[in-house]
Design brief:
It contains 13 helices and 7 strands. It is α+β, with helices and mostly antiparallel strands. The protein folds into 2 domains: 193 residues, DD-peptidase/beta-lactamase superfamily (Beta-lactamase), CATH 3.40.710.10; 130 residues, DD-peptidase/beta-lactamase superfamily (Beta-lactamase). The protein has a 5-stranded antiparallel β-sheet with strand order 2-1-7-6-5. Strands 3-4 form a two-stranded antiparallel sheet. A hairpin with a 4-residue loop joins strand 5 and strand 6. The radius of gyration is 19 Å and the shape is globular.
């Protein structure tokens, strides 16, 4: 649903996510081409899991009671390639609530329905430079939600979901995210009820958006639908498949179903790159080099266009609300698997075909 309150705390990018001597060399593993073979991928994610599974930095989110009960030892990593091969390690099948990661996929579904120009005009695509749940950001922008990955933008996006009733909107979202995952996703009733009892700030943001003419639907009902979308149960494997669908031109690599258009994937990845880690997205791109989105339950998705997706889960969070182990694993695997979209190597003239 969002990250906990913080006091101007940054992810710990001031020191390397891993020691420099621990980082695999990018070498030939650049952003072009394809993933290594499945045996190599399995070896590398197992190495990442061993390296960080005993890392005890961070703490489980407890500002939502149901999330505070998570086992801090849980840690899973999964990679899904665009050809459909999936390999996982650790607690990759453990289910948890998707939380803010859902914003990415609801945005994609709405873009698919309404089109690039309409969503850009109604929701926006620029980073606010302020925390995810900032009321000030809405006021300073004269009611503009700014982008779909902060709460104001996510509520606006949920309001744009097709349907004349909240039940119809909820069905569209649940069915759509299930298509991304390749199987029906269930609602975690305990998480939903726990969050519904503590979502007054989101209700206030939705009402503020309505006052600016940005919310045509009942803001309280939209907040409820948004709370439900954040409470859908997923696993790290689900996140890997969902991320790989974005990296595969909108086609689910497991079911081969077309979920969204390739142009919508492009738009979604662009927003993830600029705003997926909120005001810290620049730090993330500098260190990891992939479009990403995190959630307060401990999930992180990262996408390598044309290659696949990475899903991680570990509920220990840093002060900014991002999974500590998930960040470390993503940084390690970005180099090891050649996922960094900014990495390249010099052109070799003698190897060129004339």
């Amino acid at each position: 649903m969002g990250y906990p309150e913080r006091q101007d705390s940054l992810p710990d990018f001031s020191t390397p996510l891993v020691h420099e001597d621990e980082l695999p060399s990018h070498g030939d593993t650049v952003s072009t081409g394809s993933l290594p073979d499945v045996e190599r991928v399995t070896t590398l994610i197992e190495a990442a899991h061993r390296r960080y599974r005993d890392l005890d930095e961070g703490k489980v989110a407890d500002y939502i009671p149901s999330l505070g009960a998570a086992d801090p030892a849980l840690f899973g990593i999964s990679v899904c390639g665009v050809a459909g091969l999936t390999t996982s390690v650790g607690d990759a099948q453990h289910r948890f609530s998707i939380q803010s990661v859902s914003k990415v996929f609801v945005f994609a579904l709405v873009c698919h329905e309404l089109g690039h120009a309409n969503v850009s005009r109604l929701v926006g695509v620029n980073n606010t430079g302020l925390p995810f749940n900032s009321v000030m950001a809405v006021e300073l922008a004269d009611g503009d939600p700014r982008n779909p990955l902060v709460n104001a933008g996510a509520l606006t996006t949920t309001g744009l979901v097709p349907g004349t009733t909240s039940a119809a909107k909820w069905k569209f979202i649940q069915d759509g995210l299930s298509r991304f995952a390749g199987h029906p996703l269930e609602l975690d009733i305990d998480v939903y009820e726990s969050e519904a009892a503590t979502n007054q700030r989101n209700m206030a943001i939705a009402r503020l958006l309505q006052s600016y003419g940005r919310m045509d639907f009942d803001p309280i009902k939209i907040t409820d639908v948004y709370t439900k979308q954040c409470s859908l149960l997923v696993s790290a494997e689900d996140l890997a498949v969902m991320a790989a669908t974005l990296g595969n031109g909108g086609v689910n690599p497991i079911t081969r179903e077309t979920v969204i258009d390739p142009s919508v994937c492009r738009d979604t990845l662009a927003v993830m790159a600029t705003s997926g880690l909120y005001e810290f997205s620049g730090d993330w791109l500098f260190e990891v080099g992939m479009p990403a989105k995190s959630g307060v339950s401990g999930g992180i998705i990262t996408v390598a266009p044309g290659k696949g997706g990475l899903g991680t889960f570990s509920p220990r969070l840093d002060p900014a609300g991002n999974s500590v182990r998930g960040q470390r694993a993503a940084r390690f695997l970005s180099g090891a698997l050649g996922l960094d979209i900014f990495a390249s190597k010099p052109f070799e003239a003698e190897a060129a075909v004339h």
